[in-house]
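hiii so um. not sure if this is the right channel but i have a protein structure encoded as tokens and i wanna go backwards to a sequence. like what aa goes where. can anyone help
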């Protein structure tokens, strides 16, 4: 039986910024809610490490299936999966207007920034929900 090779999950700077905004809003209002969200986000990224192609393609974002997402309600983690790496590009609140969403801009700008800075592998989250 073949051994499954785990992918690396990398958070692009745009996803880190999204998560920082979410934390800045939610944690002061409800630390318990933020901790719960942090645990669910961590579980989702752990699943992506094992099954990077498991997310859904969003034809409204990319017709070629380059960008996928997983739901961590009410958020969507948009990512790309290539060559053993799942790169989280955005943490998008699905209650926001879809017209505001841009994954391509974040992906193109952040791919260069990721190469230069060594993007986060934890997305600023941990079991305790701090970041």
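sure thing!! here u go:
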């Amino acid at each position: 039986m073949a051994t499954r090779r785990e992918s690396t999950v990398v958070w692009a700077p745009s996803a880190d910024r999204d998560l920082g905004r979410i934390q800045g809003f939610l944690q002061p209002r409800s630390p318990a809610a933020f901790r719960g969200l942090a645990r669910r986000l961590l579980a989702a990224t752990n699943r992506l490490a094992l099954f990077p192609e498991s997310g859904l393609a969003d034809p409204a974002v990319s017709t070629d299936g380059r960008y996928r997402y997983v739901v961590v309600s009410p958020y969507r983690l948009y990512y790309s999966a290539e060559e053993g790496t799942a790169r989280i590009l955005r943490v998008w609140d699905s209650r926001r207007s879809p017209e505001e969403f841009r994954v391509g801009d974040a992906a193109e700008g952040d791919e260069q920034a990721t190469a230069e800075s060594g993007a986060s592998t934890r997305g600023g989250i941990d079991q305790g929900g701090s970041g």
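oh and The first strand starts at residue 8 and ends at 11.
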